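INFO batch 0412 | record 1 of 1 | parsing
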Amino acid sequence: MTAFSPAGPGASATFPGHPRPFGAGGGAWIPTEAVACHAPVVPAVPRRKWQGMIPWLLEDQLLEPLERLHLAWGDRDPEGVVPVLAVNRELLARWQQGAPGPLVPDAFALPWHKGECALAVEGDRWLLRAGPWQLAAGPAALLAPLVARLLGDGGLQLVVYGPPGSGDLPPDLAAGARWRDGAGLFDRPRGPFLPCAGGPGEQRQSAALPPGARVAAGLGALAALLLALGSAVETSRLSAEADHLEGQLRAAHQRYLGQPYDFPMADFQAVASRQLGGGEGSGALDLVAAVAPAVAACRGCAVERLAVADGAVELRLAAGAEAVAALPRAGASWRAALSPEGEGWSYRVVPVGEEMGGLDHE
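INFO prediction complete | emitting tokens
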């Protein structure tokens, strides 16, 4: 396999510490081990808006505090994915002093094609590229299990750059690998790639938020405040409406059922239905339906109250004696009694066989 030394002279083989210039052009490779590549999904909004979201989308994934990191990102793809590289600021500053120009993680030297897992090996250090933005580098002992898992889980084809048989690959990986020519592998990055610093399209995230992000953050805080205030106002309004409705229920329950409204509002339907139904289906609602036409036909009769209790129905009517005299006193399944009550009349209806005892009045 074509030898390469991304670390430069005297650097550690397992963690290179110095950039290596491109074969042509004004850039340099930096060690992939020192760079984290993320792929957050951003909404379909203008670029200036989603750029301000990136640091906060990655907040729980970054291995260092945001103020210590330099972030660089590329374009949003049709699915909303944005590639983001994160690197320590101090380390990046040292690299930039010795290698002006764009700095690119050296795993981007590997070509990538869909369905392939690209690998380059030199001694104990492996470089891996399993997707457009899926990069890894490090000791063989660390990466070999990762490569085996990628091949097993994703059905990927392992492609090793170099002469067949070169590199110290485990037998299970070497058996299924395809070998390709690695000559000139590190002459230039293979796109798509994302410069870490100094190149076209670079985006930096400074410790102090850029103006657009500050405005977005301010608007976000304002929106949160307005939302909280609006929620409080709306809650207060809903509470007032609920109190008003409950008051109306209490009044209606007392008026029409002749009993105090002393149960939770949430139980209104069950309790009222049970009371109107006379408990175990004793027919109070049927009684109301039976006498309703006659009461409606009573000219000069005005219903002031309807009370239901113990399966019986009592109506208090404001009417003259001649008007109420026409009200029926019996039906197929019910009997009725008419008696004076104050300036009006009490019209009490019970099922056949029930006593005509009194009802509780207000």
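INFO post-check: DSSP finds eight helices and 15 strands in the chain.
INFO record closed
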